[in-house]
User: Fold this.
Amino acid sequence: MISLHEGRMKHSLNGIWKYRAEENEPGEHLGYYKKDADFSDWKEMRIPNNWYLTELGDFFGNVWFQTGFRVPEAFRGKKLFLRFGAVDYYADVWLNGQYLGFHEGMFNPFEFEITDLVDWQGENVLVVKDGAPRPDTDYIQADFSASPLSPPYKKHQARAINLIKGHMIDAMHKPGAMTSFRGDGNTGGIWGDVELIARPEVYVDYVKIYSKIGIKKDWLGDQLDKPDGTALVAADITVRNTTGKTIRTDLKMTIVPCNFEEDLELTRTREVVLQPGSNTFKLVLTVPNARLWWTWDLGYPSLYTAVVSVMDDTVKQNFGIKEVVHDEETGHWYLNGRKVFLRGMRYITSQWLSQGNREMWLKDLNRMKEMEINSIRIGSHVEPDGFYTLCDEMGFLVWQVFPLHYCVSDSDDFIERASEMIRDMGYMLCNHACIGMWSVFKEPEIYLLPDKPNNYHRLCQILKETLGTVDPVRWIHLGDYREGVQNLMIGCCADGDTDLSKKKIEPNIVEFGAQSIPVLESLKSFIPEDKLWPPHWDTWEYYGFFYDLAFGFAKIQMTDTLEEFIENYQSYEALVVKEQVEFLRQRKYRPVGSMYLYYWRDPCPIMGSGLFDYYGRAYKVYESLKQVYSRVLISLERKATPYIIGREKFYDRPSTFAATVWVTNDYPHPIENASISWRIVERGAGRVVMENRFAARLAEDSVKDVDHIVWPIPADAPTGAYRIEMQVTDESGKPLSVNFTDITVR
Assistant:
């Protein structure tokens, strides 16, 4: 069980710790855990940290850490707990030479009670053995294509990974990428805060809050169920009684506004009997005139605070009143009864999560809001808690995926361990207002080997059942490519010449996008100069280039210089991603209900798929995505067979250029008297060869084909580049969407 710690009396143990990497002989044999061990020649490391970021580098194995502390005087008379925010991956802990226990997992917090073990008067010695091994699996060559890559750098597949680390251990965009070295980039380390927590003898251990928008049947009217303006807030409150005695006392919950002004204070007090140990009770309060939590584009993300008290203990838990419904028939989403289209982004702070901080997340989220993104998918890892708190406050709906990515074991043992961790994830995150839906596995059926673990029908089913015991309300998705979920990455994981007119499109596009290579300054930061140009393909593949995808799917042309090659690849990515967005948004609710770009920022020094590279420098795709992710989008759908995107569009003389003009309006209100215009411009001469302008009403939350273009290209038309320029403005003349499509006449 995850225990509440926010707002309690605490003492940080962060800072400079001693460490030693274990070599041939186990540290236990050498007495590293003992209080009187000699730590004088151990090196120093700042905690929290991922050791990859230190002089230790990409080390796999056990690292021993040691620090000392004194207990603050103010903690006397309290129950004392040692809390770890996150340790990757196995943790064994000793205090003053006494073994406290063991923990497995890279993201979930854990703690030990040390009231009777700590030296209240003097110095205490804390020792942690952090084990972060390579996964116990074989990486087997799964690609034998005729590329210049040497065998270790060709595509490899793990047989069955036994560690639950998701993106951090097996993904396309990390050190080693898809090669035989794909386990590289170790995320080991004590990367979360380490704290002493003081609690009274009777304390609130956990509060799980469920809210329900009030509904009442209109008995005197049309007999329909309707919102009545209230909300029902139900809290499961776990109280721990460590006195060894039965206690009769009051349990109280008060609800007050958190991020808005209102004269509201609702209190429910219930007499309870606390047996020794853990006790769970239900408290229910009706909130009149309930303020709902909305995504930022639909309203205000209203938050409440539940203040829970028992005897001498008081804790606070923020929450939002909202309901997210997944329509099983259409795959579309409803927030508080309103249909919502999710313009999404997949996000990861870093391969090494200790780098995350509020300043970084605030910058990223503000940028996303400027781009009119309203939803974020956390794919196969768990972010630090502060990230979700900001999403609560700023109004981003989060689709959370449990840290399983590709080929993991389907053994009974693995299912047991993963189930315990997904339960922790549920308790960690379920009170966050931003959490809208879950996935238990990123891609459970993506394997390149013929003998596949049966994860979808074994592991995923148990994980869904386990998570459902924590959160029986939100939709729980079993894994990508089922249940109306699809990845669509044209020119990356799918052939750039895919005929989209023949492609079956699902309602939820949880990954779309492409890949590219960063600017030269960034490339020079991680590719050795002698491997840079001409490309040393093994080195490039290690850092995420993917030779077969670049030349086989994207069909990028080699050039004489590296600068030209970067320009070619970035330009292709910018165009094909832009046109993926246009294609999907033209199909809003036909059937597309959500779409998530893969992804915001490269999580490590690599050639990735982000809008920004690891160093924060933008790819060209950043500007093109901003152009087409606005809530109002005007876009062009050419009449072409096959329908291929991302390529130069040629039209021979004489022929006919024909297209449909679409306008998508994601606003929750109609736009009256919108001005829609388009024109075809000969770019060299600036000559307008055809144009149209008209007024229209854009219905709320809609998409409509507003016009059709038919241009008979004359036999004597000047050859070269033409641009179809499009624009939507409101009745005051303010631009709502400005877009274009380029064609070439030859």
Q: What stands out?
A: The CA atoms of residues 161 and 408 lie 4 Å apart.
